[in-house]
Every structure is written in C-alpha cells, then in structure tokens.
Specification:
The chain has 48 residues and is an all-alpha fold. It has one domain: 434 Repressor (Amino-terminal Domain) (Orthogonal Bundle), CATH 1.10.260.40. The chain has three helices and no strands. The radius of gyration is 11 Å and the shape is globular.
C-alpha cells in the first residue's frame, strides 16, 4: 500500500495555500473542515 509522506504533503499544502493567498481558515472553509485540521495537515501531524 502507498504510504503518504505527511511532512512533504504538509509543506506542499502550505506553499500552495500561500501561493493562492489563502489563510488556513479560508482553506478550511472551502474544504468544509476546521482550521485546526488544516494546521495539523501542514505540520505533518495528521492526514485525516
């Protein structure tokens, strides 16, 4: 099974979010998740 590199994904997500000029809260609202979830993804703490 494929294993996701949480740190690499988090860095990619953070860079893309900043490139688009979005805050974590704005991205979270777009994805219907909490801003805490986005923060955890970007820090590589969680992938869910």
């Amino acid at each position: 099974m494929y294993q996701l590199d949480k740190d690499a994904f988090g860095g990619f997500l953070a860079a893309l979010r900043r490139e688009k000029g979005l805050t974590q809260r704005q991205l979270a609202e777009t994805l219907f998740v909490s801003d805490k979830a986005v923060s955890k993804w970007e820090r590589g703490v969680s992938q869910r």
